[in-house]
Design a protein that fits this description.
Type_1_exporter, ABC transporter transmembrane region fold, ATP binding, 62% helix, 6-stranded mixed sheet, ABC_transporter-like_CS, single chain, transmembrane
């Protein structure tokens, strides 16, 4: 795995709640200090206000006496006003600061997270487990990390409040503190356990969320609109969406019921604790060991603290436990195997001489069965090859191995006599050009679709060879016209035209080895044959490997390779394989019969 030295200093093993908080300090140190300072001040203000309110009440009670303490009362009233004003101002200020924090993380952390997503090993990213993990971690990551900082600061603030009030209570009755500890420890333990259980349950509904997102996209996107109308499957998909939504809603309802029950139980326990405090401190007041003002102030603070503990602290540790589980997932996400070479803008152009595959075996990580089994193959520079076989024979898998997307294979592949694993991703990218069957459609200008931001690029020869001139002439701004309906002036083009553009990309890249993995399925057999014929002429000095289910195009190849059950079954020219009258001949004759019937 390539070491990551971005947002975690390359040491994913040390990721924890604390390191995540340090991450916040790194991205916005001034905001971090400001939030922490407000947190400490909020915590210290509670015991300070407890004393001030107590003195205010005591001084107010002297107004009817012969020696009223008017000055002391007014002074404490002023302090109380300042304190309450600060509380309101501090709350609004923290909301503003945390929003700024979230924006800072979105601007600085989000690009690194996206970069990490793009660099995840291709084979690993194909698994649904990895996709669910990525979805859980990256969905509103800046909000999640801001929440971790917010809840951490809240824990500090409440801890200061609790310790301060317990210190005051200890002076009058030490056993109240002991009872409080016996109450709060089980509450924290149960809420931590509950938070972990909820997060684990949320992981299970991750697939449901992904399914809902997909169904929502199918029900609303333009590409599926024609089939939605023709096949009238909107109601069926809508029902699936509703079922998935109902499942997730039921989960959220159970989650809410669990949280409500937990809060109610905490309320009952804390109210019993308040009654014990009232009974205990009332004796202190009657014995004149505690003033009425301080008693009233302590009682008010304890009632507020009870609300905080029964609702906020319970929720706080519940959420904190959930955040802890999230950080574990974040750690797994960072540890995912990656290939940073995908961010190198420049491919290293290399010459191609030969490709030699020796006893190749390959299977997917979650499978026991091999897709490729003992395959041996030799390809030469300047020749054109056709790779044919039934669905599931392993054609696309073999192609992904050749271009470096899959590297976890057994056996040996030599490119120009050198082990393919010794080539970097960029070196292979500068040698192999691939047009896959699931090619991408980029909703940018036609020129950018082919040349990717190279404004000085001359794409005329590519356009001419692939017969895209008519398309460009019909576009309002020619090659600078935007494709796709996401723009007001965007042009919608046919599937066949998209495929020609994808092939044009590969041809413009001008690599010595070009692979076409069934990219012409949207074209007619005649158009496909013509493109392959033109392609062979243009790429006559290149090595060409073509995959197509329509075998009429294979006749233009120098050599045909028949793949069956993960190994080479036949190899030779069209004439040679037809004379053998084996797999290829039977496939070819069967297709020919379909055209002549």
């Amino acid at each position: 795995m390539i070491e990551n030295k971005g947002f975690i200093d390359g040491n994913y093993k040390r990721i924890s709640i604390l390191s995540t908080i340090k991450l916040c300090a790194r991205y916005s140190p001034m905001l971090f200090i400001a939030c922490f300072a407000l947190t400490v001040m909020d915590g210290l203000l509670v015991p300070l206000m407890l004393v001030i309110v107590g003195k205010f009440i005591d001084s107010a009670m002297t107004l009817a006496s012969k020696e009223p303490q008017t000055y002391i009362m007014l002074k404490n009233a002023m302090f109380m006003g300042i304190g309450y004003f600060y509380m309101q101002f501090s709350e609004e200020l923290k909301i503003y600061f945390y929003q700024l924090f979230e924006d800072a993380l979105r601007n600085k952390l989000k690009p690194e997270i996206i970069k990490k997503q793009f660099s995840i090993d291709y084979l690993l990213f194909e698994s649904t487990e990895t996709q669910d993990l990525v979805l859980r971690v990256t969905n509103n990551i800046e909000k999640r990390i801001t929440e971790i900082l917010k809840w951490s600061n809240l824990i500090i603030s409440i801890a200061i409040q609790v310790i301060s009030i317990l210190y005051v209570l200890y002076k009058y009755n030490w056993w109240i503190d002991v009872i409080f500890v016996f109450i709060i420890v089980p509450i924290i333990f149960l809420t931590f356990k509950g938070g972990k259980a909820i997060y684990e349950s949320e992981k299970k509904v991750g697939f449901i969320t992904r399914q809902m997102n997909y169904l929502s996209d199918v029900l609303s996107n333009r590409e599926a609109s024609a089939e939605r109308t023709l096949f009238n499957y909107s109601d069926a998909l809508n029902k699936r969406f509703k079922d998935a939504h109902l499942y997730r809603s039921n989960f959220n309802t159970k989650k809410l019921a669990s949280e409500t029950l937990r809060i109610k139980l905490c309320n009952i326990v804390m109210n019993i604790f308040i009654i014990l405090i009232i009974v205990s401190l009332s004796r202190q007041v009657s014995n004149k060991l505690l003033s009425v003002g301080l008693f009233t102030s302590i009682l008010g603070s304890m009632i507020n603290l009870t609300k905080v503990i029964s609702v906020q602290v319970s929720e706080l540790f519940f959420e904190f436990s959930s955040h802890k589980e999230y950080v574990k997932d974040f750690k797994k996400f960072i540890a995912l195997e990656e290939n940073k070479e995908v961010f190198n803008d420049k491919y290293e152009k290399l010459k191609f001489e030969s490709l030699h595959i020796k006893n190749l075996y390959f299977k997917y990580r979650d499978s026991k069965d091999y897709i490729i089994k003992g395959l041996n193959l030799y390809l030469e520079k300047g020749k054109s090859y056709s790779l044919v076989g039934l669905n599931g024979a392993g054609k696309t898998t073999l192609i992904k191995i050749l271009v470096g997307l899959y590297r976890d294979f057994e056996g040996e592949i030599l490119v120009n006599g050198k082990n393919i694993k010794l080539y970097s991703f960029n070196e292979l990218g500068g040698m192999f050009s691939l047009v896959s069957q699931d090619y991408a459609k980029y909703y940018v200008s036609l020129k950018d679709n082919i040349a990717f931001g190279d404004h000085e690029a001359d794409i005329n020869s590519v356009i001419k060879n692939l017969e895209l001139s008519d398309l460009i002439n019909d576009l309002p701004k020619g090659e600078n016209s935007y494709l796709g309906k996401i723009y007001d002036n965007g042009i919608d083009i046919s599937g066949g035209q998209w495929q020609r553009i994808a092939i044009a990309r590969a041809l413009y890249k001008d690599d010595p080895f070009i692979i076409l993995d069934e990219p012409t399925s949207s074209l007619s057999p005649t158009a496909e044959s013509k493109i392959y014929s033109n392609f062979s002429k243009v790429a006559k000095d290149k090595t060409l490997l073509m995959i197509s289910h329509r075998l009429g195009s294979t006749k233009i190849s120098d050599e045909i390779i028949v793949l069956n059950c993960g190994t080479i079954a036949e190899q030779g020219s069209h004439e040679e394989l037809m004379r053998k009258d084996n797999i290829y001949a039977k496939l070819f004759n069967k297709q020919r019969e379909m055209y002549y019937e």
